[in-house]
Design a protein that fits this description.
The complex is a heterodimer of chains A (498) and B (503). Chain A is α/β, with parallel strands linked by helices. Helix content of chain A is 41%, strand content 13%. In chain A, helix 7 runs antiparallel to helix 8. Chain B has 503 residues and is of the alpha+beta class. The longest helix of chain B is centred in the middle third of the chain and has 20 residues. Chain B has a nine-stranded mixed sheet. A three-stranded antiparallel sheet of chain B has the order 4-3-14, with no helix packed on it. The chains are: A alpha/beta (498), B alpha+beta (503).
């Protein structure tokens, strides 16, 4: 196996730019690795070997012509199959979009290409990003490289598993309620939910418009920052995109210094029920580590966070019920029952019945109900008020501290099949991550050790204010550096070889 | 559900027993260059599905970006209708499934319209009626469905349907009146006058071409009846998509007669959508609204709120054009025309054209004569609107000038207009190419007169003997010989001189 797959994205970018290695060699090494591990982890819905090599050749040609390459040119990236791509199918892991070829690239896709990143394929996810285990994919479940009987988290489980399995150094994800941070935590890698509006949603197939946020996965904080910077920034095609410079995330990741920073520990997320003991232990150690690095830590109470989960499960399904209405067999995608005798309405109903999986249907029904006349105020309206209260809790907290910390997830990776029949148990996986989606601020998950009960990775969540994404990277990189010094290398070296 | 045999109550009788309450919802397609939420063009009549993109097709992942010009136009409409302009408002999603709606929701506005609480005055039979405006909001149009086969041209019973999404996403302004009460027997005319006034206002603002027959102005009319002396309004019906002023008036009249007939027979009115039929002047039942559709409105999360800057709003207010009713009164006075003639010009959409022609130098009477006469006839023949004729007010003014200076007579002028309409060039070019200038050379004309007298000796003799009326035949001869290019009055004068009689 090529040693290239063990390199960081930053190293690979440097090597390609200096000519030490060609982008084609780098890409081929990763395609070989994908072929090796994919039968075990099922991270990809589509591997685009030819297209990837084509993109790599283009990077090599640019270099040969003397063009200056960006820091990630020639570096392979796996793309969550919820972003549109003109040269690859885009399914959102749903049968209703099987075989659809979008006529346009998402803004994130376009920026990956412009940065010279090599898109090797599209990764698996929970159907329409609805889920926390990737088991809701209509095509196949993805497995956790740490333990193939366990889930890689979700919804961006394919991306997380691919990065953790060294199939790619980088991957994209989307985070609506924790869909980047939770899989990053349970696969022992780094994942960021940028500030809402900091990265464009154009071409991201919508689940919940007011929450969906594209973000990066990587095996280390600096790589995540490089990818974050590559695809973020204002996009005139997304009205909710923030017209401000991308926070200096790469600089912050290099800074890796927390001395003098004020760190708040969210009281509600260490005292509640349902937290695994090993998770809390690693978290407590991480807080102590931050103190030893010169940060001041204090306990912060965010009382409204208790209502975050119920509010989320009204807002997200409400928006999804509307966003997913367009999948009606009329213009693209699956069409069922069009035998010349049935009405358009019947074909729509049959197609949606056949094309959507059970979790998607559950959320469409929940959302349709929550928005119904007579229920709107009690459900959607109240949830929006909770949302305001959560944002106020954050505001008050950030008056006192620079960042907040919590465990990313209450538990380590659970077993495949363990929670599929218990939606509430599944939803609890996102307990700690949801508040940041509701308030729109930035958050990152970085590995902070293994839980002793199961030897599985635990994630530390670092939360920063809106447009304070750089603080996530600054603190995350400091923790990473200190822990890797302690461990003698990255946490992933503890993972079984595949 | 509707009674198959409905007995209409004659209008006058209905008016003695019931008081109508009206409400109008008018949709105006804005004439912006691009659509409401994407950059696609809005040109009418392009081949189906050629003016579309991922956004207006609602493809997965696409997002709307609001058209600033459309927001500005809506605010200007609101200001012209004396509305308050919202300090802060949002778009909302109106959710329902229909194949011509690419996203199966329409981006519209719900409880936060951009403009609200205004009014407009309309004149009917010399009486001014103030119509309250409830709200003016901005939304996107749907695609256009065509249902093929089946008897009704509606989706139920059709063999198949096609959808053209060129119209999907065109900015649409919805203007909703407050309930219009107390108009009595004038109700049908008030409805018509209101729509006509709105149309003129949109045109004056330059925000829409307001072509009812092309659907860029569409009107839904709500009608209910209340017994005279009663206090409780009746159940209303909504007659959809009226596409001419005449249809608006007829539909209201018919609904009054129909509802009065039902109420008189002890029946009850069903709250429903109705369709108007041009050919019979009647309405028929559409879908019942008894089980009201739940649109599950909620604020559109893909768009940011609109917060119009107050200074900007005041600037837009200051720049509003003269209100159409004020302008009409001014022009009528300036031109010195009767109420009747003014109304005729308005009905023919000729006021702008006449005004422009006068501005280009033509006397008002001449400008009006050509536009309302020869050109109106030509437009009618070709099924076009006056403004669509390939002739400019400046060209018409030039024709007026050529007539006034004696270089053309009316007959020649008509030929010049014909030439311009046929694309033969400017009036002067047509005169030149067709050789239409009046024979004004005295010598040439005198020679022709001599020839005609010689050829018609018998007639000439009669004239010499004092039967001056016979000179007409000689003039006719001159006109014939010059192919109509002689100045007939001058020819007559010459003939009489040569025959030694005084006219």
């Amino acid at each position: 196996m090529s040693e290239l797959i063990r390199k960081t994205a930053a190293e690979l970018g440097r090597m390609v730019a200096s000519g030490e290695v060609s982008a084609v060699e780098v890409t081929q090494a990763h395609l070989d690795r994908i072929a090796e591990v994919e039968p075990k982890i099922d991270a990809f819905l589509h591997v685009a070997a030819e297209a990837a090599l084509e993109q790599a050749r283009a990077v090599d040609e640019r270099r040969a012509k003397g063009e200056r390459l960006g820091p990630l040119a020639g570096v392979p990236v796996a793309h969550k199959d919820i972003f549109t791509t003109v040269d690859m199918p885009t399914t959102a892991a749903s049968k209703i979009l099987e075989g659809w070829r979008p006529p346009y690239d998402a803004t994130v896709t376009r920026r990956l290409r412009e940065a010279g990143l090599v898109i090797v394929g599209k990764t698996n996810l929970d159907e329409f990003a609805m889920g926390s285990s990737t088991e809701n994919s209509a095509y196949k479940p993805t497995r956790n490289p740490w333990d193939l009987t366990r889930v890689p988290g979700g919804s961006s489980g394919g991306s997380a598993a691919a990065v953790a399995a060294y199939a790619v150094p980088l991957a994209t994800g989307t985070d609506t309620g924790g869909s980047i941070r939770q899989p990053a935590a349970v696969t022992g890698i780094v994942g960021t939910k940028p500030t809402y509006g900091g990265s464009s949603r154009y071409g991201l197939i919508a689940f919940a418009s007011s929450l969906d946020t594209p973000g990066p996965f990587a095996r280390n904080v600096l790589d995540a920052a490089l990818l974050h910077e590559a695809f973020s920034g204002h996009d005139p095609l997304d009205s909710t995109s923030i017209n401000a410079p991308v926070p200096p995330v790469v600089e912050a990741a290099r800074q890796a210094d927390v001395s003098g920073m004020r760190v708040g520990v969210i009281k509600e997320f260490v005292e509640g029920e349902g937290y695994q003991r090993g998770v809390l232990r690693r978290f407590t150690e991480a807080v102590e580590l931050l103190e030893s690095l010169g940060a001041k830590t204090i306990e912060i109470s965010c009382p409204s966070f208790a209502y975050a989960l119920p509010a989320y499960y009204l807002i997200a399904p409400s928006e999804c019920s509307s966003n997913l209405a367009r999948f009606d067999a009329m213009r693209y995608g699956l069409r069922v029952g069009d035998d010349g005798t049935r009405s358009a309405e019947e074909v729509m109903a049959l197609t949606r019945a056949a094309g959507f999986g059970p979790e998607v249907k559950r959320r469409i029904m929940l959302g349709t109900y929550a928005l119904s006349s007579g229920y709107y105020d009690a459900y959607y309206g109240s949830a929006q008020k909770v949302r305001t209260l959560i944002a106020r809790d954050f505001e008050a907290a950030f008056q006192q501290v620079d960042v907040l910390v919590s465990p990313t997830t209450p538990t380590t990776a659970f077993k495949l099949g363990e929670r599929v029949d218990d939606p509430m148990a599944m939803y609890l996986a996102d307990l700690c991550t949801i508040p940041s989606n509701l308030a729109g601020n930035a958050a990152i998950s970085v590995p902070c050790g293994l839980a002793e009960e199961d030897n599985l990775p635990v994630g530390l969540q670092i939360i920063a204010p809106v447009l304070g994404d750089d603080r996530c990277y600054r603190v995350g990189a400091a923790v990473e550096k200190a822990l890797e010094d302690r461990w003698g290398g990255p946490l992933l070296k503890e993972a079984p070889s595949l | 559900m509707s009674t198959p045999t409905e007995t209409l109550m004659p209008f006058d009788e209905a008016m003695e027993r019931y008081e109508p309450v009206l409400g109008l919802e008018t949709h105006v397609e804005l004439g912006t260059a691009s659509k409401m939420f994407c950059g696609c063009p809005t040109t009418f009549g392009a081949p189906p599905n050629t003016q579309v993109c991922p956004v207006c097709l609602g493809l997965p992942g696409s997002l709307p970006v609001a058209n600033a010009k459309a927001i500005e136009s809506t605010i200007r409409i609101g200001l012209a209708l004396n509305c308050s302009i919202a300090e802060w408002c949002r778009f909302a999603r109106k959710n329902y499934f229909y194949p011509d709606m690419p996203k199966n929701f329409q981006i519209s506005q719900y409880d936060e319209p951009l403009c609200y609480d205004g009014y407009i005055d309309v004149e009917v039979d010399g009486e001014t009626v103030r119509i309250g405006i409830e709200r003016v909001h901005l939304e996107e149009d749907t695609g256009k469905s065509t249902h093929v086969g089946g008897a009704t041209g509606r989706i139920h019973g059709a063999d198949y349907s096609t959808v053209d999404y060129n119209r999907a996403g065109i900015p649409l302004v919805e203007i909703v009146t407050k309930p219009i009460t107390g108009t009595g027997r004038l109700a049908p005319q008030v409805a018509r006058a209101y729509v006509a006034e709105l149309r003129d206002l949109m045109r004056a603002l330059g925000v829409s071409d307001v072509r009812m027959e092309q659907g860029s102005l569409r009107c839904d009319v709500n009608v209910s009846l209340m017994p005279r002396g009663g206090t409780e309004w009746g159940t209303r019906t909504e007659t959809k998509n009226l596409n001419s002023l005449r249809s608006v008036e007829r539909a209201v009249r018919h609904e009054i007669e129909r509802q009065a007939g039902i109420l008189d027979a002890g029946g009850r009115i069903i709250q429903e959508t109705r369709h108007f039929h041009e050919d019979t002047g009647t309405t028929t039942s559409g879908r019942s609204k008894e089980e009201a559709q739940d649109y599950r409105y909620f604020p559109e999360p893909d768009l940011v709120p609109i917060a119009p800057d107050r200074e900007w709003v005041e600037k837009l207010r200051a720049e509003l054009p003269e209100p159409p009713s004020v302008r009409r009164r001014r022009l009528q006075a300036e031109w010195g025309v009767s109420d009747h003639d003014m109304a005729a010009m308005r009905n023919a959409d000729a006021i702008d054209l006449v005004e422009a022609t006068v501005k280009a130098g033509a006397p008002p009477a001449d400008a009006r004569k050509w536009w309302m006469g020869e050109l109106a006839r030509r437009a009618n023949e070709s099924g076009k609107a006056l403004a669509e004729l390939p002739i400019t007010p400046e060209q018409v003014a030039r024709v007026c000038e050529l007539v006034a200076s004696g270089q053309l007579n009316d007959k020649l002028a008509r030929q010049v207009l014909e030439g311009v309409l046929a694309g033969e060039g400017t009036p002067d070019e047509v005169v030149e190419r067709r050789g239409l200038r009046i024979v004004s050379d005295e010598g040439e004309l005198a020679a022709i007169v001599d020839q005609v007298i010689a050829e018609n000796a018998e007639v000439a003799e009669k004239v010499r003997n004092g039967k001056i009326a016979a000179a007409g035949a000689l003039v006719g001869g001159v006109m014939k010989a010059t192919k109509g290019k002689a100045d007939a009055a001058r020819a007559r004068q010459l003939i009489l001189e040569k025959l030694g009689v005084s006219g």
